[in-house]
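Recall from the previous lesson that a structure prediction takes nothing but the amino acid sequence as input. Here we apply that procedure to F-box domain-containing protein from Triticum aestivum. The sequence below is the only information supplied.
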Amino acid sequence: MDAAAGEGGGGGFANYAEIAAHFNNLALAVLSAQDRIDSIVPYLISLLPPPFVPAPDADDSSNSDDDHFSLTSSDSEDGVADDRPAAAQTAQDDDGRDHISRLPDDLLSNIISRLPTNEAARTMVLSTRWRCVWAATPLLVDDAHLRAADGLCELRAVRAVSRCVAAHPGPVLAARVTRLSFDQHEYALQQLIANLAARNIQDLILFNRPWPLDLPLPGDILSCASLTRLYIGLWRWRFPDTTANSPAFPNLQELGLFHTIIEDREVDPLLAHCPKLKILSFAMAYSFPSCLRIRSRSLRIVVEWLCSVDEVIIEDAPCLERLFFESFADRRPVKIVHAPRLEVLGFLDLQLHALEIGGIVIRAGMNVRASAMLPSLKILAVKVQFSHATEAKMLHTLLRCFPHLQTLHVMFQSIGSRSPDSVDRADFWQSLGTCDCLESHLETLVLHGFQGLECEQLFVSYILEKGKVLKTLSVVCVDIEDVGVEEGPISGSVDESNVSSGGRSSGDDVVMEGGLMSGSVDEGDISSGGSSSSDDVVTEGGPMSGSIGEANAPSVGSSGNDMIYFCPAASCWSFQNAIDLSVEDPFCVLLRQARITYVAAE
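The prediction returns the following tokens.
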């Protein structure tokens, strides 16, 4: 991630030579441009969808002749007893018959599809029956499975992948190439893509590494009409402006551009060639001259992840449901012109993002008109410095822009210099009044990075007081995957010594009478799978305080709703969750809840 941060500086790059010059000219540069790119590649690969078959560990590899079996071998069935899988050999040891080979073809094909690429190919030598099964099984190619990609020269490694595809007569289900450099092997690359297109490739991940980087992606990629998922990395993609022709990717539903340079004018024809595209992601990519403009009638998810762009414009996306950012570097406008179905937005960084809705720039404290509202939005995630009055006011203005908001995620940013207008007074928030979402829709408030500062506690108290239908207050526990609160009253601390999954709340019911309440979850109060020692905890009178880690927990004011739940949460914000439509809330997972009942003080 250090390398990613080093890419700040804004502006578009027309080619990788400009990127290299930028890296080499950094004032405090310690690494060369090549070293920086090399350090970025593993991070990019970690963002990719997981492989269908995990790569074998290096420690499990051996130096036997079988490890170097040729993917195009046509050895006969004679003398192959020692090459049989252990399971088949064990079966024959029982009664002298090969029971595995007598299984139906579909089961044998299922077995082969679960093997690494090289091991699946080796099943051809077992018998003519296995050879036919391998040929009929849709091929899964992963260069991480091939020994040649690890130990041999670059040319032989590229040829190993190409030979694997060429040797298989049937369809290719998926190909994952992330470890090869195609520099000086452009012909082999073209042949590989042509063979994949001829075999109706459906899922393709194609990276070029490590250096040099400014290789154009072959135009033959447009012939892969059967693709449903495509991720490309470290290429210069010169997409032709051929919108008048039939779509190049009529079946493509998921597209990821990783550290790839694509010109602004090429994005429109690219999307026009993908009439069924649902998921579009950019990871550390470059747009030239640095404006990302989205026009698509099919897209449901757009992700901008650590990219070098100066502006994001959602111009016409009638089906767009989710818009995600993981941004850095300079301030940039985010313009939402037409996205009537947008339901999830975040993380919106109030330091970096200048939001514009329907052609209206959203400013702190402005009077929000109907044309500047997005009634469809249900989940909002924002990064805020509450020590800055402008950002605090902007958050309140955003709540007015999203009148039907149901879940609000607030990530508390580190405190810098304080603004002249103090937000450490209760009257600051009271002067802002309420809004539609607080009156009738906001049900869940999730706090990320809560430090217990007075300005933060005042904000939480404001939401709890004005949130008439608020049901859940949650605090994200850092570095804890599964948390359950157990034993003791609401206050305590969350320590790893007692953390595990499936715990229950210490009190399923917490009754509060009058005063303020600040709850906390500390590591000492977490354990696995147990149940509460008491079902009801009654608190009367003054405030109740505690901490999360070393920070104070939020003060809880009197809510318009007489019952809410307090629960810890685990962060699940990641690139993969961002592009997964099955994940209801990609920012966190709420865990076991403790019910808090408010009784108005007399």
